Structures are given as C-alpha cells and as structure tokens.
Sequence to fold (334 residues):
Amino acid sequence: MSRTNTPNFALSSLPAYGDVQAAAGRISRYCTETPLLESPFLNQKYGGRLLVKAENLQVTGSFKLRGAANRVGALTDDERRRGIVARSSGNHGLAVAYCAGLMGTSAVVVVPDTAPAAKTERIAAYGARVVTVPMKDLAAVAADITTREGRVLVPPADDFWVVSGAGTVALEMVAQAARLNARIDVLLTCCSGGGLTAGCLLGLGETSPATQVYAVEAVGFEKMANSLAAGRCIDLAPGSHSICDAISGLYMARLPFEIIRRRLAGTFAVTDDEAKAAMRVAISEFGLAIEPGAAVALAAVLSRKIPLHGRTFAVTLSGRNADLDLTAAALRQV
Fold:
C-alpha cells in the first residue's frame, strides 16, 4: 500500500555537477577516499569486470558521512548555535551525530523503534540525543522537534547539500576506475530515499555521462520503482518487513526524485535471501563486512538481474553498521 508524497517545501533549484565538485573539497578533511576493489574470480565467473566501492570503510561506516559533512559544514554560525535534527534508521543519524561533535554543534536524532541497537548506541556515543519512535511517526516527530527547539533539519536525502555530498562517491569511482584502466558502463546503487542514486547521477554527469545508473531496492520497499511508474513521489504505508533496514524507509525524497526521473536507466528489487548471499560474497571475495541494505546492489549483479558479460559494472557497498549477532545469523542462513 502506498500514498502520494506531498512535501511541504518549494523545489527551487537542484544541485549540479559543480556542487558535487565543491562538496568534494568541503568534506575532504572529514571523509576518507574509500577503495574501489575487484575480484578476478567474480570477473571470470560473470564474464565482465565488477568493481565494488567500499563505502562500508567510510569513517562512520557508510556513505552517509559525505552528505552529512557537506550539510553540517555549510551551517551558518547562528544555525550551529541552534543545533540540528536528523531522522534516520541509523547510518544518516550516525553521520550527523559524528559531524555535530566534530563541527561544534548539538544534534538530536530521531530513530525508528526497528533500528538496530548497534546503530542507536553508537549515535548516542557520539553525543547526540536519541529519540525513538514508531517508523510511521519519524518525519512528524523530527519536524516537531525542529520547530519547538529551533533546530535545523538535516534530512537523509531531501537536501541540496546532502545529495551533493553523496555525489562525491561517483567522482571518486570514475577517477579510481581510470587508474584501473576501466571505464564504468553500468553503476548500481543501493537505494532508499534516493540521495545516493541522485548524487551519483550528478557526479557522473560530466566525467562519465555514458554510464547507465540503476537503483536497487529491497523487495517490499520499492519506493523508487513505484514513484517512477506513477511519475510522482510515492511514500509507502507501514507493514512490510526486510532485513535491509538501511533502505527500508517509507519516504521517497522529492529533490533526489527530480534528478533521478530524468536520467535513471531502471530499478531492481532484491530479496532478503539475495542480500544475505551478497553479504557472504563480500566477505569471501573482498574481506568486507557489510550490512544487508548495503549488499543489494552487489546482490542484483550476483543474482543475474542484469547481465555483466563483456561490460564493466560498479556497485556501491554503502555501509557496515549492522548488529553483529543479526549479521552472523543472516550469514548462517545463506
């Protein structure tokens, strides 16, 4: 079941390639350049080149640090004194909490009651105030705190600065692929609200415009696919469940959607079992521990939803912040 998303802000302008370039300079002191890796075994098995962008090795454990660092770094002195608010299933909240402490402001992070304990505990450890609510109340509670306390809302995807920061993933990938004598034919991104997908489309715009970009979602949480089919943003109603908590939000972000709907090559949906299988491959082939939601782009290739043969694919491994017991159980079930 779904409902139309009617955001309460005017969409005045969209970020562009130059904004991604500016973000790269702004966040360089806070974020690491994560490696782009490949496995000769997988290349041989699938008949092409598969490059994985290890954003799970980012400082706070996910690509979300890029957008958070860009947004918090752009706060005015007055906004920094007032503090910030974020709503997040975990990774965005972690990034915002970390940046708040680093850049001299305070943060409140509203998390769903389904968020893994490992994420919420780390958010609190970074110094943020954590507010736990049912998933359906996430946006409303964050908006209420923003108004009552005069804080600045830092959305997980629906933000000019956040999308621009996420686009630095693609900037790095193109440069790294060139050093590997590769040109990226297809990029698959893990997708929830669309911030990473939109940012990567921008980041590829002038450096690799021929690259096809696909968004990969969790089965039951196909907000992007539904929105593209409807021609407008579609939110989901509560009720579905997936082990891929990082991409199982209910809200389709409008700003990213305005970028994505003009340029995206398509979407895929991955089951929990396919995500678990990809988690296992990430460990066995790359020595990388990733969370289920971060595995879906890799899973789409491994489950042959799109043929790799004769082409160079890049996929995002977008984060690692999963409960270790749940991760171990997921891997045993494969």
Remarks:
- The longest helix spans residues 272-286.
- Residues 44 and 309 are 10 Å apart (CA to CA).
- The radius of gyration is 18 Å.
